[in-house]
Specification:
This protein is an all-beta fold. Strands 11, 15, 16, 17, 18, 20, 21 and 24 form an eight-stranded mixed sheet that branches. It is globular, with a radius of gyration of 25 Å.
Amino acid sequence: MKKQFKNYFRPVLYIIVGLSIVFSCQNINPLDGVELTVNDEVPKSPVLIHFANANSTSANVPSDFTVKISGKDASLVKMDGGSTNFQASHGLLPLALTQSSTPSASNPITFNIYAEIPGFAPVSQTITIKSDTTKVIDISAIELSNPAPGTSVSIAQATLNNGVASTETSFKISPSSTVSETTTISIPAGTKILDANGTAINANQLSSSMVYYSPTSPTSYGAFPGGFNPTNVVDEQGQPINNGNGINFVSAGLVSINMQASGTAVKKFSQPVKVSMEVNTNTTNFESGENVKEGDIVPLWSLNEETGAWKKEGNVTLTKNSSGKLVANFETTHLSCFNLDWFYFYGLGTCNTPLTVTLHIGAGREGYYDVALVTPQNQYLAAAHWEYVTDGKKVVFPNVANIPNAKIVISDFNLWLNPRLPILAETPIFNPCTKGAVDITWGSPAPPEFLNINMNIVGKCSNKDVKILPSGWYYIYDYTKALTGKDGWTYLYLVNGVIRYTYGSTITNTNGVYSIKLPVGHQYYVYTWNNNKWYESGLFTLGKNNFTLPAGTGITGSGAYNSATNTLNITGTFSASCN
């Protein structure tokens, strides 16, 4: 059966599983009874990056690829295990900071993640670490042949004459079933195509890949390159905005433009090229609080995807084109992501009054979600990300955006910095600066079936007879749940046998048995990342029966069902490094 890894990060709240991960060794006796650890130091700030397809209905997801780490604190980042060869596998990238790093709220560690994933638009996100804690961060990518709702894609080629556009050359993103806006870039005749260093590229064909991201579709802006809370932001003169403390974007649309000629990335042009971005009339102007109209002014920003640096390019006045649609026209001599954004930060564009949100959640809905403040048109304003939602929980936004109309939404997807569809519940429209407090209600699902499960995954080595306390990431992937477009991942991070972090389900440790809640009857894979190597099982089903754990990459085993206790005992082994 072909594996299909889906992308939703919704918490699972169904079956109780005991997950006992034990390492044992063979043959050598002198060290019998001595406890060792796999790693000689406790990892600093472990962070798991999960790359996902923004289109939850697609079976194609990011798999294995190279990732580039750059930015201010890039030298402090390594793979969990010590390597600096940043390679994602199964769409996962386990990272950690060096022992010399000291992340804090006043001295955060920031770095940028950039990846060119085969079949997807390039992804770029700036990561900020403020403490020595463990976390999972999700980064969505747009599949070029099957883009997510709220996005549209253009893949095209044009002819060059020894690296020069002999006639005016245009590339256009046409409307899609979920996007009505178009974007066009026009290259004047006689323009030379240049690389990042400004050197002419001698080529006879130009390839273009363009993606438009709607600002009013949570599925789209959940995959916005760079996110909505950037920290590396400068003005037209190259000076940091807000003293380098970051800003908040409120977008009116973004287009990512990538071109290649003879295998070389095109980054510059010998003369300005023209870009024309249509703007949806149902977009809220952050400054006026009303829908955008002709004559409105919107700041224009460019993103260097490889470094995560944003630069303000100036302002654009919205006009109407020959079709009567609102359009932002501008010129540029370089390629990047171009984003039409208003912006705010504490002291600018905020009303400095708190907003308290009280959550009324039905039984069985508890779990991790985004609780977001958005415009009436669903443009992102702010969010409490990865919030553990329970009935009666209160979420406080200390300084809300100064906008007359907004609403609160609960989002089904726990995406770092960006909420996305589906929106599960929302409030009526209100004024966040004067409301003070608001309630939001979300109902309850049907009760699930339960099955007690004990899982024992044993790491073996042949050169020592010692007990090794496990450290590293462990994953359980719910294949059945993923096929419905919902979350498939549960994460567990251990340091010397002690739980450091869990995500996807509530996990507890009692005498070395890790209890977790998962659905009965679903099919699963089990993975582990240990000493710079991946291990995985074959696909298996949690049911009231005995079974053999199918062989995968290094993990084998079996399951035995005990009807007296209604318990499924799963055992497995893999060859661990005991250096």
